[in-house]
Each structure stands twice: as structure tokens, then as C-alpha cells.
Amino acid sequence: MSENRPSWTSRLTFILAAVGSAVGLGNIWRFPYIMGQNGGAIFLLVYLILILTICFIPLIAELYMGKFLKKDCVSAYESISTKFKPLGYLNPITGVLISSFYFIVGGWIINYIFLSLKNAQITNYSEYFGIFTQSSISTCIFTLAFLFMCIFFTARGIKKGIEFANNVLMPMFAVILVGLIIFSLNLPNAHLGLEYMFKPDFSKVNAHMLLAALGQALFTLSIGMGALFTYGSYIKEDKSITKSAYTIIFSDTMFALMAGIMIFPAIFSFGLEPSSGAGLVFVTLPYIFSQIPHGNIVSSAFFILLFAAAVTSGISIIEVPIATMVERFKFTRTKACVLLFCIISALAIPATLSFGILNNFHIFGKNIFDFFDFATSNLLMPLNTLFLCIIAGWFLKIKGHLFLKNKFLAKLFDIGLKYIVPFILILLLYIGLR
Ligand code: TRP
């Protein structure tokens, strides 16, 4: 069977695909709005600490396990012990649930691309966002269009597209972001945004914020859903994955910070509310673009590049359930893609409608969209990461010296994987969900 598994043409392709998976809507859309809802600078501080300490370990462990076991998540977990099979299934299930809200935001981007290309003049962007997300038919069509595109690329083999998106489009995206940052920093009252981002208010520390920071850190690095595991399993040659892990963490954090420095000064300058939720970026950015000469051109370029970033991440999310269907259930790739399209649509359409006709339908006090987001980022991904660390540390007995040259760091990795990371994950889950 292993001869039929796809594999990366080179180490670089793999790194680019992994970075492409990490950098996406999580950085530009989710990071600023979750930070705005959780106290600003203090959230950023906790988030950065988590990324550099707690997340680094499962990131490497997930990549290494994939590379070492060379199977889809379910078969891989099962090969360690049949008892772990249900835990393996949690990964593709989480993937389907993440898709059910991620692709909706992808759909919003398509709409904003059209708006920018048409140079539509809108007077009140928050009102526009509200009306647009309530309009059931068009949002559903955009969601399905985005889903279709990701599935189409996945079905057609993804290497060329991903390589192009990451080699050419991502550097362009970074350049546009830098331009927008310079503009944003020159707005009146920009310093208030920077203070909000970088001057922590320790009185805002609370259990929910800690769990939200963990959820965002895992989400943005694509940890805890088998995406990196699956990408790792396509690595052919026997090279260390540590460098890839550093590259993923570095680029992902840079993109998130750039997004923050672009958004927050503008929020304060325009007198908007940082805690306004999922629409934050879609309200703030068009404001910025409307102030810039030839803003519609900049805006079109921005949303097209964000779209490319979202597609490379979306592809990595659906690759996990697809790998499972192909390898375990012996589906052809095309058949798996068609079936997955139907399953995700069945979940994503009600979630799309939760901004419109289904807005009174709540699960645990949240609308369907927010529920999928919360259940995956703050519950399933930390849980999957916990299981991954326990299986990797206690059963597979993965050791740090396999990929870390520095003896001290390797020892730290061993202790982290077996004790510290599981402990902190359990603690954050416990206090955050109480
Ligand atoms: N990390 C991506 C982003 O920031 C989203 C993503 C891709 C993801 N693959 C994932 C999230 C796997 C969780 C799990 O946009």
C-alpha cells in the first residue's frame, strides 16, 4: 500500500506546504478577533509564550509521528494499539468540523474580492457585513464555491498549486501587509492600537482567556487535527524535521503579528470596537482601503492573496479526512472528494445560516458557527494534542535526541512531551471549560 501513498518531491515542497497550512485565515481573520475579545496585549503575551514552549513540542511530535509511521492518522494510531483507533478517528472528525466554519470565512473572502473588483462604494461597513452574512443564498453559494475550490485542488494533486501559492503569492502577501502596516501606523491615534497590543493588563488574566490563547495557538499552527501528521507522512527522505518546525513557527507568528499591527491601530483610529467578534477584520479592512488612494486595487490584491493563503490551509484541513477515506476505506481520491464535499456542505450550510435564518438556534449558548469554532479550537484540538503527546511520549517513546542536537534541549523535549505539555493541556482544559 505504501507505494501508492503520495509523497513530496523535495524537502522544500514539504516545508512550503506545511507553512501554507499554518498561515491562513487563522492569522489574519481569527487572531485579531480572538485577541480583541480576550483583552489584547495580555492575550498576545500568553499566546506567544504558548507558541514558543508548549506548542513547539506537539508540533515536532506530530510531524515526526507522521513521518515515522507513514500512514493516515487512524491506521497509524491503530498500529500502535487497537485501543487508540477511536482517538485516531477524532482527527478527521475534527477536520470536518473545522471545515464547516473555515470554509464559510473563505466564502466571505470571495465576496470581498468581488466587491473590491467592482469598486463598490459602501458607506457603513459594519452594517454591510451584518446584512451580507444574513443573506442566506449568496453566503451559501460562496461557502460552497470556496469548499469546491479546495476540494478540486486536492483532487487534482496539490503539489504544483501549493508550491506556486507559497513561493510567489505568500511573499507578495507579506509585502502588501507591510505596506498596510505603514499606512495604519500613520493614522491618527495609531498609538492607542499599539498600546492595546503591547501593553499587557494583568488584571485581565482569566481561565477563558488562557484556553482561548491555547486554542488560537494550536489552530494557527495547524496542530491537533492530524494535518501536520498527514503532511509528515508524505515525507520520503530521512531528514530532520526540526528546521521545518522552526520555519513554520517563525513564519506563522510573523504573519499573525503583522495582521495585528495592521488591524489594531486602524480599529482605534476609526473608533471601532476591538471585541466585536468574527466580523472584525471584514469591517476594519474595508475602512482602511477606503482611505487609501486606489484603495480598490490594493483591496483586490489583498483579498486575492488572503484567498490563496486560505486555500492552502483549507487543502491541509480536508487532506486529513481524505487520506483516511482513501487509505482505510479504499476509496478512490475522486470518490473521497465527492463524499467529503457532501458531508462538509451538510454541516457548513446550517453554520452559514446561523448568521441569518438560523440565528436563534443555539447549542450551549452559541450559534452553530461559533459552536463549531469553539468545539474544535478550545476542546477537540487540545484533546487531540493531549492524546498525541501521550501516545508519542508513553507508547511510541519518541525521544528528543532523534531530532534535537543539543542534549539539554533534547532532554527538555522528553520531559515536556511526557509530563509538562499533557499536564498543562489538562489544566487549561479543566479551568477553561469549568
Ligand atoms: N492553521 C490554519 C490557519 O491559521 C488553519 C488550519 C489549517 C488548521 N490546517 C489546520 C487548523 C489543521 C487546525 C488544524 O488558518
Overview of the structural elements:
The protein has 434 residues and is mostly helical. The radius of gyration is 21 Å and the shape is globular. Helix content is 77%, strand content 0%. It has 17 helices and no strands. The model has no long low-confidence stretch (mean pLDDT 91). The structure holds tryptophan.
For the structure shown, list the relevant keywords:
globular; binds tryptophan; 17 helices; 434 residues
- Approximately what portion of the residues adopt beta-strand conformation? under 5%
Biggest sheet: strands, sense, closure? none
Name the helix and strand elements from N-terminus to C-terminus, one letter apiece.
Answer: HHHHHHHHHHHHHHHHH
**N→C terminal distance:** 45 Å
Structural class: mainly alpha
Find the count of extended strands (DSSP E, 2+ residues): 0
Could you say which small molecules are bound to this protein?
tryptophan
Estimated radius of gyration: 21 Å
Topology:
Blueprint: H1 11-22, H2 25-37, H3 41-69, H4 73-80, H5 85-118, H6 125-134, H7 136-155, H8 159-185, H9 190-198, H10 207-220, H11 227-233, H12 242-269, H13 280-291, H14 295-329, H15 333-353, H16 368-395, H17 407-433
Helix pairs in contact: 1-8, 1-11, 1-12, 1-14, 2-10, 2-12, 3-9, 3-10, 3-11, 3-12, 3-16, 3-17, 4-5, 5-7, 5-14, 5-15, 5-16, 6-13, 7-14, 7-15, 8-12, 8-14, 9-12, 10-16, 10-17, 11-14, 13-14, 14-15, 15-16, 16-17
Quick recap:
The chain is an all-alpha fold and 434 residues long.
